[in-house]
Specification:
The complex is a heterodimer of chains A (392) and B (390). Chain A folds into 2 domains: 147 residues, Glycogen Phosphorylase B (Rossmann fold), CATH 3.40.50.2000; 161 residues, 3-Layer(aba) Sandwich (Rossmann fold), CATH 3.40.50.2000. Chain A has 17 helices and 13 strands. Chain A has a 7-stranded parallel beta sheet with strand order 3-2-1-4-5-6-7, sandwiched between helices. In chain A, strands 10-9-8-11-12-13 form a 6-stranded parallel beta sheet, with helices on both faces. Chain A is elongated, with a radius of gyration of 23 Å. Chain B folds into 2 domains: 204 residues, Glycogen Phosphorylase B (Rossmann fold, 3-Layer(aba) Sandwich), CATH 3.40.50.2000; 160 residues, Glycogen Phosphorylase B (Rossmann fold, 3-Layer(aba) Sandwich), CATH 3.40.50.2000. Chain B is of the alpha/beta class. The chains are: A alpha/beta (392), B alpha/beta (390). The interface between A and B is medium-sized, with 22 and 21 residues.
Chain lengths: 392, 390
């Protein structure tokens, strides 16, 4: 089909097999009649199995740098119109001639493509590429997913000033993120909320959901990263321990904070109560979720969090923090509980209260959560919203 | 007093200030010293009984290796063979080990003093050559390395019984080391000593518009800065006007994010690592020095602040309560507790004149009694002598 709408998706890395979000999005778009081209700045240059993959020039290679430059030069010559337009747009933004040319080099891999949409998968990916879409005559979309909107600007204030002055359609995961963008001066009409979704057919309880264990089983899934608030979580569990509540807490995931967390477990005397499981497969995740009673996601920063959706779908009682999108993921006292972040005593209090609920009350919350996830956060609904997004 | 020949291995030359004070003190008292380590910057000492074996760059390393290899072949052939056999048996038969080992074997000190115990496995051989092996228990390497990397717990348990003397920077850290088979009878606490002529005591309260809080330390989770920032948020909720500076963290994503999330951009400042004299003047200008750590040996910044006359608040994070007595010469708060930390900060902000003077004078006295350079040298010599049964 010659006139399939073409979407250029810009990501840092080609999504690996485990990155279900991007893979299911690509698959869904292809099935719905879109042509997807992936633009990646990955250095390993391994293409995506189902879509055309274009790699950004790599200026780290000392020996083949000259070839890289020849390639860029030819690319620009072949696409003189787009190159000239990008130069003009860069100059209009106040960039010096040198910086404008440098910017063209960085973005040269985009120039040959005629796209309906150029969609940057993370806010940070759009930095230094703010003018590319216009130069190649396509519409520009940018997704914000969490760290790019909350953590990155803490380090680099005003980094999105230029981006926000452009004609862009934004995709965010939550109303909270939409409000943040509006605070930055982005117009509400250009922001679309499309929440993450999960495979609700896969994440279904295969055993009857009820509080199964006499030693309460708690679980968290996520990278061992400071933004997940695991240290605060452990501090809350140390309060539970002092109250002689029998519990076990399993943390699934790997990451750079392992040392810090292991020390916290030691110092808070939680050796016998906490297990670090490391990274495991999707199937194993489901098995462990099914054996647990409560899911905890006491993050400091969280775009939306698929793991919480999966836990709700399986029928776990979820206690989460109020970080960013989490209070939309879980509705307080309807589908779980939302606790103010960075406050271990409050989290501990909430856990104790939840344990004490009657079985009937627990079942009500579980069913609410399962229903809502099935209804609101399924892949079909998400794909409909993306289709609407691209027909904007 | 008996004179010793002491080799000090500290990984890198120049060594940190507190090891430098030990080196100079021992040299002044007449001991011969050999300082060995990776040379990152040229150093010179005023005493000529300090010999520096610093290696850096390929040519320099080659020269050191050739020189000592030749000397050993000429004058200590048998011992060289013995060491080489040990190296082969223990998978250490490589160039860098030779560069580190040969000068020690040739100079044959009475005492080999290892500053960082993580490397203990590399140095147990010195005992085969009648050199006493002394190790320092300073902080991180004993406080959390064996907990976070269990292989070190095994290494320590295996090699600690071979050590001739343990130097602990606090009684508490020696207790910690006993978990890994360190023998109390071989251990002495040698408190860190300061040059008190340099750190002049000032009884005058600094005149700051807002309450100035200072922390100093490297950018590491063990320092507990996340807890400190949570405490700062409580101060702000309580309408306390303050400014909090952390020296030594520079760019740290977690702390930068926390500062923004807690809306503390105007109150909290992160500063890159500073030289010692600049830190001293920062301490002098501050109303309080805060140590929010989860675990420490004894933090030198607390000792320095007490010497200078700046009140201190520290978490109860190890040996610190051997120096700071709550409400007498400073303030102690529990670890991981921002609420209590905030209360303590407010308390110091509102100290009446007489209590303020009493606290800082007591603090200075504590340092003068237990943390002078001469006491440190004397106590260290006692440990060396003890290893010889004297």
């Amino acid at each position: 089909m010659a006139n399939k709408p073409k979407i250029g998706l810009v990501l840092a890395n080609v999504p690996a097999y485990s990155e279900t979000f991007f893979n299911s999005k690509i698959k869904g778009l292809q099935e719905n009649g879109f042509d997807v081209i992936l633009f990646s700045s990955s250095k390993s240059k391994v293409s995506h199995p189902t879509c055309k993959t274009i790699f950004a020039p790599n200026f780290d290679l000392r020996f083949s740098l000259i070839f890289e430059f020849i390639f860029i030069f030819i690319n620009c010559l072949k696409n003189l119109k787009a190159t000239y337009k990008l130069l003009k747009l860069n100059r209009k933004d106040g960039l010096s001639v040198k910086s404008s040319i440098k910017n063209i080099f960085i973005n040269s891999h985009f120039l040959p493509y005629k796209l309906s949409w150029l969609h940057f998968g993370f806010g940070t990916m759009a930095l230094q590429s703010e003018n590319v879409a216009k130069a190649i005559g396509s519409k520009m979309a940018v997704s914000f997913r969490g760290f790019d909107l909350y953590i990155y600007p803490a380090k680099f204030p005003n980094c999105y000033q230029l981006l926000f002055s452009k004609n862009v359609i934004y995709h965010v995961l939550s109303d909270e993120m939409k409000n943040t963008l509006i605070e930055y001066g982005v117009s509400a009409e250009s922001i679309n909320k499309i929440t993450p979704a999960i495979n609700v057919d896969f994440f279904q309880p295969s055993i009857k959901y009820e509080t199964k264990n006499s030693v309460f089983q708690f679980i968290t899934i996520g990278r061992l990263h400071w933004k997940k608030g695991l240290e605060y979580t452990l501090e809350a569990f140390s309060i539970l321990k002092k109250q002689n509540i029998p519990f076990h807490y399993t943390i699934i995931g790997e990451g750079i904070e392992r040392e810090k967390l292991m020390f916290a477990v030691h110092q808070l005397n939680l050796h016998s109560n906490v297990t670090f499981v490391g990274k495991i497969s999707h199937n194993d995740v489901k098995n462990i979720l099914e054996k647990s009673d409560f899911y905890i996601q006491y993050s400091i920063q969280e775009g939306f969090c698929n793991a919480v959706l999966e836990a709700q779908a399986i029928g776990l009682l979820c206690i989460v923090s109020d970080a960013d999108g989490l209070s939309e993921n879980v509705l307080h006292e309807k589908t779980g509980w939302v606790v103010p972040k960075r406050n271990p005593p409050l989290l501990a209090e909430r856990i104790v209260k939840t344990i004490a609920l009657s079985e009937a009350e627990k079942i009500k919350i579980r069913e609410n959560a399962m229903d809502r996830v099935k209804r609101e956060f399924n892949l079909t609904k998400q794909m409909e919203l993306f289709k609407a997004f691209y027909s904007f | 007093m008996r004179k010793f020949k002491i080799a000090i291995y500290c990984g890198e030359i120049p060594p940190p200030t507190f090891i430098d004070r030990l080196i100079n003190g021992l040299a002044e008292q007449g001991s011969k010293l050999i300082i060995i380590g990776n040379l990152t910057q040229k150093v010179s000492y005023e005493f000529n009984n300090i010999k520096i074996v610093g290696y850096s760059g390929k040519i320099n390393k080659f020269f050191i290796l050739m020189y000592y290899s030749l000397l050993l072949s000429l004058f200590r052939r048998k011992e060289k063979t013995q060491l080489k056999n040990w190296m082969k048996l223990n998978n250490k038969n490589n160039t860098i080990s030779k560069i580190r080992y040969y000068p020690i074997l040739y100079d044959k000190p009475d005492v080999f003093h290892l500053q960082w115990i993580k490397g203990i496995e590399d140095w147990v051989w010195v005992r085969d050559f009648d050199i006493k092996l002394i190790v320092s228990l300073r902080g991180a390497h004993i406080n959390y390395t064996p907990i976070c990397e269990p292989k070190y717990a095994e290494i320590y348990k295996k090699y600690f019984p071979l050590v001739d003397g343990f130097h602990g920077v606090s009684n508490e850290i020696i207790q910690e080391a006993t978990k890994y088979n360190a023998e109390i009878s071989k251990s002495n606490t040698v408190y860190s000593g300061l040059d008190l002529n340099y750190l002049t005591f000032n009884q005058q309260k600094p005149t700051n518009e807002v309450f100035q809080i200072l922390s100093v330390g490297r950018s590491h989770w063990i320092k507990g800065y996340t807890v400190a920032l949570d405490a700062m948020r409580i101060l702000k909720n309580n309408n306390v006007k303050f400014h909090y500076t952390i020296v030594g963290v520079g760019q740290n994503e977690e702390l930068q994010f926390q500062r923004k999330q807690l809306d503390l951009i105007n109150e909290v400042e992160f500063v890159e690592k500073l030289p010692f004299d600049k830190i001293i003047s920062k301490i002098q200008q501050s109303d309080v020095v805060l140590l929010p750590s989860f675990k420490e040996g004894i933090a030198n910044v607390i000792l320095e602040s007490m010497a200078l006359g700046t009140p201190v608040i520290s978490t109860d994070c190890g040996g610190i309560n051997e120096v700071v007595n709550d409400n007498e010469n400073g303030f102690i708060v529990p670890i991981r507790n921002p609420e209590v930390m905030a209360i303590a900060l407010q308390k110091v902000a509102n100290l009446d004149e007489s209590t303020y003077v009493k606290i800082i004078n007591n603090a200075r006295n504590s340092i003068e009694n237990n943390h002078t350079e001469s006491k440190m040298i004397q106590d260290m010599m006692l440990l060396y002598k003890k290893s010889y049964g004297e």
